[in-house]
Amino acid sequence: MPDFLRSIAKRTGDLMSADLSTDATSAGETRVPSDPTGLHRVLEPVGALPQAAHRLDTRADIWPDEVKVTVSRLNLDAASFRQLITKHQGAGEAVRAEVLDIIRSRGKMQNPVTGSGGMLSGTVAEVGPDSSLGLRVGDPVTTLVSLTLTPLVITDALANWDGTSEQIPCEGYAILFGRSIAAVMPDDLPAPLALAVMDVCGAPALTARVVRQYVDRGAPPTVCVIGGAGKSGSLSLAAARDAGAGHTIAVVPLQREIDLLADKFLADIVALADARDPVALSAAVLQAGGPADVTVVCVDVPGCEGGAILSTEQGGTVIFFSMATSFSAAALGAEGLASDVTMLVGNGYVPGHADYALALLRAHDGARALLEARLECEAAG
Length: 381
Prior knowledge:
Layout: H1 3-16, E1 42-44, E2 55-56, E3 67-76, H2 78-87, H3 92-106, E4 118-127, E5 140-143, E6 152-154, E7 167-176, E8 182-184, H4 191-199, H5 202-216, E9 222-226, H6 231-243, E10 247-252, H7 255-261, E11 269-272, H8 278-287, E12 292-297, H9 305-310, E13 312-320, H10 327-336, E14 342-345, H11 353-363, H12 365-380
Helix pairs in contact: 5-6, 5-11, 6-12, 11-12
């Protein structure tokens, strides 16, 4: 058994015999050793990793390899926010109440329907002596791991959020584990803009990697980004161009998103189609210069798997970055269409992804203008 798995197995045994209450540690209490994956913070079910856990320990006292962050802003992922706002028919007070209930009951932000969460920004409040994250007290940071595995406490009842935007101003604290990932916020960008970029930085990094593989083989690919006017979509378009794509297609569902992309120089052609309609989507992509060698799915609604596969050339690649994706539907759909495509799950992490996404934003005025416009729309309600 590898040393890493042996360590997890041992700590799981330790946890099964430990009392992990959410109250602060009392004097003389013996705590189980911390685990870099956060196993020591799992309350139930014991042995699960934090992302899969039903409830996490949110005590404020940190273990030696942990970091405590004073939270100033949450960023809900797009699929989770859409599900919540749709469920409550746009009623912000109801959305806010449900988000608070989720955090209080689970010790983290994990939408029970989508399974997704988002990420946060704040200021480092305390650093354990054994932390390897390279952070210092006072650093302004954003997490690069999901809220679905981050112990989180909100202390202001989200009083300054109206429930109608993905970004949530708040007060509280969060805990980072030994193996968590965080980045110091850049000082040349407004915090909401930097947070929006960090939230999706895995998408452009993986898109660039896949496109470069085609380019290195001497075949600059046709790249189609479904949801090209969104945060991850616009940066993925910029990344495709940056990596040497031969032709870029953005697919959007509304005319106003075509207008949003106009003159941004991110796509060669912008196509209008509902990604949930596989025939209409594939026809639109074909008319725009497809089928695509690389299709990147960045939409926040379910039911787009078949259209993405149908829009992709035999032997091509589909990258799913949406938390609304059904991976069983994707696998069975490709089989049913006799489609020989490689399907990748965008897991949100590629080495150097945060720096790369920020560099893209700085280099592509169109991508920055689009993200700023989206943030202004959110702020205006």
